[in-house]
Amino acid sequence: MQQNKLTKITVLGAGAWGTAVAIALAARHDVLLWGRNPRQMQEIEAARDNRAYLPGHPLPAALRVSADFDAALAHVATSAPDETPLLILACPVAGLRPLLEQLRGRSIPNVVWLCKGFEAGTSLLPHQVVAQVLGDVVPGAALSGPSFAQEVARGLPCALTVASSSRALRERVVALAHGDNLRVYSCDDLVGVEVGGAVKNVMAIATGTSDGLGLGLNARAALITRGLAEITRLGLALGAQPGTFMGLSGMGDLILTCTGDLSRNRRVGLALAEGKALATIVAELGHVAEGVPCAKAVRELAHKLGVDMPITEAVAGVLFDGVDAARTAAGLLARDPRIEVA
Ligand SMILES: NC(=O)C1=CN([C@@H]2O[C@H](COP(=O)(O)OP(=O)(O)OC[C@H]3O[C@@H](n4cnc5c(N)ncnc54)[C@H](O)[C@@H]3O)[C@@H](O)[C@H]2O)C=CC1
Ligand SMILES: O=C(CO)COP(=O)(O)O
């Protein structure tokens, strides 16, 4: 495959994932990592290590870091005419709208977002938030799939999916990002890719809770499988293609997040099983756990659409309604029998 050399890329958001993606892409491109906290960005520059969000993964010498928003945008506005630069949005879903507001009216290239979830309050998917704020003039894509930041930063093998309604942008992102140990597939089902990436976080809280309660490996496999059925039902109601949920952004990310202890969402579940309060868990985590706000947004959406989502209901009940986790697990098992594919 033809690799584009030294394309200019700006990553907006210097958390764990933005930093890991910037590290991976800096091996082949001219990458600038922007973070909103000037003191933190100075510390990263001084240590050449993001000690707050991704400690122990030195930044390559070529990777530039900055807290200057104008400079970050100028980086991707100054490319040669034959290059299309890339703007990567690496904030959590809660930060997407505010970040997009900062971009509105500015001259920006193609945007690719990495966040996984439904927006709290609106239950919108990221591409819908992008369309609301920027309109459809800027081509956009979601990059998703099973990808723990720490492993990507170490250069371990990883496969992702880029989803966009623009074929040209999908091809562009593949040409830029595919290579070394990153394998990038493409897909035109933006809704399916985003729904899979969002709801798997809720399922990871469920499996973490189940594992923490000692309910066993059989229960975990059941939760993952029925979780996939639940994700698929919601996705189909929103217009997704069923096959997408068998792919990297569906089953792939669901398996990773439900079983891998690097998952922050799984760790939320493990801590809930210990009886910790949600506020304590979130404070101790020090990172976003998208499954928490997403459980509420998905519950609201499922009610609105009439989609049966018992695992999401159970997770939201434990997180927000003070329902006891062990009782919730028993409640799930006590549901009436049904045909498996339904
Ligand atoms: N960490 C991982 O392994 C992966 C994370 N993701 C997704 O990427 C998104 C970001 O996750 P992480 O970087 O891991 O979270 P994190 O909790 O490690 O860092 C979040 C970063 O976003 C910044 N931020 C928050 N609101 C912002 C705003 N309005 N403007 C600019 N920056 C803002 C914070 O300052 C912080 O630097 C989430 O949606 C997550 O689900 C996706 C794949 C892998
Ligand atoms: O999305 C992820 C892996 O693909 C990261 O999951 P967590 O946010 O649960 O750590």
Overview features:
single chain, 342 residues, alpha/beta, Rossmann fold, N-(1-d-carboxylethyl)-l-norvaline Dehydrogenase, domain 2, 2 domains, 8 strands, binds 1,4-dihydronicotinamide adenine dinucleotide, binds 1,3-dihydroxyacetonephosphate
What does this structure look like?
The protein has 342 residues and is an alpha/beta fold. It has 2 domains: 8-188, Rossmann fold (3-Layer(aba) Sandwich); 198-334, Orthogonal Bundle (N-(1-d-carboxylethyl)-l-norvaline Dehydrogenase, domain 2). Helices cover 51% and strands 11% of the residues. The protein has 15 helices and 8 strands. The protein has an 8-stranded mixed β-sheet, sandwiched between helices. Helix 5 links the parallel strand 5 (110-113) and strand 6 (140-144). The longest helix has 23 residues, at 190-212. It is globular. The relative contact order is 0.11. 1,3-dihydroxyacetonephosphate (13P) is lined by residues 116, 146-148, 201, 204, 253, 256-257, 263-265, 290. Residues 13-18, 35-36, 53, 90-93, 95, 98-99, 114-117, 147-149, 287-288, 290 line the site of 1,4-dihydronicotinamide adenine dinucleotide.
